[in-house]
């Protein structure tokens, strides 16, 4: 036996539940690293937000779609509104088809075995039969697709049954845009601020606005 030198050891968590619990517990320490390393941090952010949405109902700051908002006009000054999200059952399941699974069982967060699932990363159905689809991103922009939105709207029985949410950290919230900026969605679309574990939502928004005023 010859001892090997591991210059860059890598630990891979196979269990989604273990990763969600670990990232949730240590997110305060991981937050800065996650923001500054977006190519790898997205996995941490997705696991963290998935757990956050599944654990309890809570109020998030969000901006609802408007043509002016999506066109990027006066983004730092657009006021957010409070929306309540979360199924509160602490249930997260990995499935092949998140839409079919959500239709069959409400109040469970379903995410796909496919890392590049079209349009959304995870979904749940609430007690009123409304479907909540989530796309998680650390970027200043994220692609969207009118045809994929239309297919999802059809799958859940109509635009009135669906809301789409782009979950972004506070540091990116005020400047975030979809690409294209106007997805022409028939359902409700929101940009949602995910605060750091300290809950510094206002600080993040003020820092962003100050940075862009300086430029």
Short description:
With 215 residues, the protein is of the alpha/beta class.
Using DSSP, what is the number of strands? 10
Average predicted local confidence, pLDDT: 78
User: What's the story with the biggest beta sheet?
Assistant: 8 strands, mixed
Distance between the termini: 59 Å
Please work out how many helical segments DSSP would assign: 7
Query: Which secondary-structure class do the elements indicate?
Result: alpha/beta
What is the share of helical residues? 25-40%
Q: Output the radius of gyration.
A: 18 Å
SSE order and pairing:
Elements: H1 16-36, H2 38-55, E1 58-64, H3 67-70, E2 81-85, E3 92-95, H4 98-104, E4 109-112, E5 122-125, E6 131-136, E7 141-143, H5 146-155, E8 162-169, H6 170-173, E9 177-179, E10 188-194, H7 201-214
Parallel strand pairs: 3-4, 6-8, 7-9, 8-10
Antiparallel strand pairs: 1-2, 1-10, 4-5, 5-6
Helix pairs in contact: 1-2
Q: What do these coordinates show?
A:
It is a single chain. This protein is an alpha/beta fold. The protein is built from 7 helices and 10 strands. The strands form 2 sheets. The chain has an 8-stranded mixed β-sheet with strand order 2-1-10-8-6-5-4-3, with helices on both faces. Helix 1 (16-36) packs across helix 2. The chain is globular.
């Amino acid at each position: 036996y010859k001892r090997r030198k591991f210059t860059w050891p890598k630990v891979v968590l196979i269990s989604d539940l273990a990763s969600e619990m670990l990232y949730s517990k240590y997110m305060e320490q991981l937050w800065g690293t996650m923001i500054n390393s977006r190519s790898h941090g997205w996995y941490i952010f997705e696991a963290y937000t998935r757990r956050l949405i599944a654990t309890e109902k809570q109020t998030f700051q969000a901006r609802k779609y408007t043509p002016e908002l999506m066109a990027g006009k006066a983004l730092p000054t657009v006021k957010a509104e409070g929306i309540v999200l979360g199924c509160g059952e602490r249930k997260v399941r990995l499935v092949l088809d998140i839409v079919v699974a959500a239709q069959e069982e409400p109040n469970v967060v379903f995410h796909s075995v496919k890392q590049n699932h079209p349009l959304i990363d995870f979904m749940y159905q609430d007690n009123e039969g409304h479907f909540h689809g989530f796309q998680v991103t650390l970027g200043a922009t994220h692609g969207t697709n009118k045809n994929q939105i239309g297919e999802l709207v059809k799958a859940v029985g109509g635009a009135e049954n669906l809301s789409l949410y782009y979950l972004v950290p506070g540091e990116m919230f005020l400047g975030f845009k979809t690409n294209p900026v106007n997805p022409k969605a028939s359902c409700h679309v929101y940009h949602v601020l995910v605060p750091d574990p300290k809950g510094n939502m206002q600080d993040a928004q003020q820092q962003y606005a100050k940075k862009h005023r300086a430029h």
